[in-house]
Amino acid sequence: MITESKSSGEKKEFSRRNFMRYGGLLVGGNLASNNGNRLPFTHAPEEDEPKIKRFKLLGRTGFKVSDIGMGNTRNKEVNVVRYVYNHGVNYIDTAESYQNSTSEKIIGEALKYMNRKKVFITTKLHISERDTEQTILNRYRKCLARLDSDYFDALYIHNPGVVLLKHEGFHTAFKNLKREGKVRFMGVSSHGGRSGRDDEMKNVLLSAVADGRFDMMLMVYNFMNHKIADEVISACREKNIGTTAMKTSPGVLKVAEFDPENLTKQQKEYIQRFARRGRSKETALASLKKRIKKQKETYQKTKPFIEKYGLKTAFDLRRTGIHWAMQNPELHTVCVSFADFDLVDKIIPLSGTQLSHVEDAYLRDFKYTYDDQYCRHGCADCNGSCPHDLPVSAIMRYAYYYEYQGGEKEAILKYARLDSRNASLCRNCDAPCLSACPYQLNVRTQLLQAHEMLTLA
Amino acid sequence: MKGVQMKKTGLIFLFLFVYTSFLFAGDFPKIKGFKQAGEVRTYSADNLWEYIDGGADMFIDYGFRNLRSCDFSSGEITVAIDVYNMVTPLNAFGIYTSERPPEVEKLKYGVEAVLSPPYQALLLKDVYYVKIDVLEGDLNEKNGVQLLQAVAAALPGSDTYPVVLGNLPATGKIAGSERFVKKAYLGLAELNNCVIADYAAGKEKFRYFFVNTTSGEETEKLWSHLVKKWQMKKIAGRPLLLKKVPYLGSVALVKNGGKIFGVSGVEKEDELLKKAGNLIDTKTVK
Fold it and tell me: Mean per-residue pLDDT for B96-113?
């Protein structure tokens, strides 16, 4: 519970927006899922169970880190953390914001079954201009209390813009905490591309490298999206900075077939949504038919890979993507969001192994086919290329909400708010945007498709 | 006659669409006694990470559709109100119970609410999970309750707990311990959509749960899948499935009323089987 009294001078300086928005609820979330279910059983992997085989030096920290790490974003089970640790994973990443701070508590519970010195635990704090040294100290101490440990191995600034890298309050707080032995190293994470150049992963992480004070970086890295991270990793190597990766899978493409006699639940819902808007069933079916045609084309493109490489599930793509990321010798650990025992059993055997020729060929083929269709997470390089000043990446995102996230109404409303500044302008444009996408996406065609979808034209 | 009925239905849908659009078309429900203090921020599953970063994963697991967030002020207090649309009341209940602080008094605003002065309040209503974070000033019992009342009144939908919670056995259930885990309950990839509660029998504590399948067909499909992976036993002539979970001991499952029920947290196997047997005749509600 928050116990600061009204007379506390610290409290008034507290940046509540960040602290609370990102879940710094001191009381934590519901840990009951573990209470009463933690019997005093012990378990260590049997001799024949897979264990981590490769460890790398985590830059200047000097810690030998397992090539697979754990990101505890969604896991609610203390026992899964214990299981991961007992299979040799010695890097666990969390954040004040994960699960309204419950994630730190879950790791803290699991920590009672671990050797503290043999595991590297990191947490992250979002900071804003409002934060001060004192607010950061307050929040960090609560993180420590939830972990029930004397220290975290590293404290990250969570996805900041470039300006916040030099936040005086944060650096002073960190110095004090380090002097007190409550933290060992400093890091920065970036997903990139939040609202403008200041937040782009490349700018943030390269600025952090240049700053010189950061010991570790956490970045987006996958086989479809690694050019920026490659640059960052290279810069980190020069300064002996630890490198860790997240979002190692580019996502999943839909490969479902269509049977008009046996519509799926989603397809039925699609038709119902049209009905709710007062559109006729004929219109809905026509739209669905068009949509399915597109899906079929995607399916036909994907089918050869599935057959050639024996991929049966989306999970195969994810596992291969993780395996690919692990091959980079300069990337020290790959954080996997483990949330069940099966996933641990399937991923741990990848440790220390080489990507097979089949896996490599699959990823190359996949990338070759989808490279010009995959609008990268966080990329906004095309913005500014349009003579009509259309917010290109935003329109692409609205189309994505509509098509893949079930957010049709929201997407249409958002798009409608652009008013006349919409993609209908692309019809008679000579499209300078075609050369703007670093991944050669056909921006004009995609915008026109989005316009059709978002206006129900 | 049919045409008139269809027109009426169409008008009702149109009204609902316009009504909900008005409520959330980039606008925000009016919060009585509070003044909007900024733009409405909206997020979908695609960009929720922009707001809460890795914390978005869990919301997406729970079926998150969109978030509308806006700052409000009244007197000396300014708050950010985040309204998460989780599509179904059960999903909203699941994310709410996973973020709800333990050992805090549960208040009857909306379906349920909790107040954690001076910084935060949470509220559940229908498909909405609401997080209220204080930006300026202090949240106290008085203004916190006013705020929760106003937010609950502003949101559409039902004030009752999801009906399916009624499937949990009543005897020995610890009040307020119900929760909903969308994925990998107990760390088992095959146990998804589980409704759980804690139970006490004397000094012994354990848990009952059920998998919230939505049809008999889905239940049978899942059961067939589990039969291949779990150990089969019989209890009172009925099949029972057992599995050992690392560090936890065994979990038992039985079928009843078109659903799969389970028990965990019991150390001795004979006792576990007995408790599983009790589930076979439990009356189900939906």
Answer: 92
